[in-house]
Task: inverse folding
């Protein structure tokens, strides 16, 4: 929490947060978040320094717990854990849907731009019917917390949402890192170079 971390500082206006992702040598995105008194100009200076180092900064001009990516990730995961716990879908099917549908679309058009493409009338209608039915309880998922208490902590323990017994988990990590590097290289290739007149301009949709 950058707000709490900034409180004892003599010069909180010089304070900001950087959030790298693992593996840091492969993940290009770095989040840059302002502290409670950090001027936007200083945040922009930090973002530009990251660009010069070859990173791709995502800028947050206000402090918020969890930064941006983790908040989006945990919003999805909270619903996914509920679906598993309620017996609606398996972890494997949720992961399959993420790999084969959510992820490819996001790679091409992101999260928000995709909704412009599909149409906001349809999206607004879907939001009106689906959002009230999502699982909102404001507490960490009990199933996940119980798993951790039982020592079912993932690959390090040999089991989590999956049974990793007999798997070379170090090879799994290395493979994932190599695949991420190849995917990033592919996304940066000419295959994904935008055609003329296909790139929209950013705008602030707030009234």
Result:
């Amino acid at each position: 929490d950058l707000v709490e971390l900034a409180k004892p500082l003599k010069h909180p206006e010089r304070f900001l947060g950087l959030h790298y992702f693992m593996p840091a040598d492969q993940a290009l995105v770095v989040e840059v978040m302002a502290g409670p008194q950090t001027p936007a100009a200083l945040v922009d200076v930090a973002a530009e320094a990251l660009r010069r180092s070859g990173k791709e900064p995502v800028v947050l001009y206000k402090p918020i717990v969890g930064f941006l990516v983790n908040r989006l990730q945990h919003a999805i995961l909270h619903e996914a854990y509920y679906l598993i716990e309620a017996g609606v879908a398996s972890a494997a099917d949720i992961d399959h849907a993420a790999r084969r549908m959510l992820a490819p679309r996001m790679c091409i058009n992101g999260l928000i731009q995709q909704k412009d493409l599909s149409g906001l009338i349809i999206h607004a209608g879907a939001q009106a019917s689906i959002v009230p039915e999502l699982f909102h309880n404001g507490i960490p998922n009990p199933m996940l917390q119980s798993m951790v208490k039982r020592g079912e902590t993932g690959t390090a323990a040999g089991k989590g949402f999956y049974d990793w017994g007999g798997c070379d988990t170090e090879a799994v990590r290395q493979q994932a890192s190599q695949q991420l590097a190849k995917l990033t290289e592919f996304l940066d290739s000419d295959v994904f170079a935008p055609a003329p007149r296909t790139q929209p301009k950013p705008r602030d949709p707030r009234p």
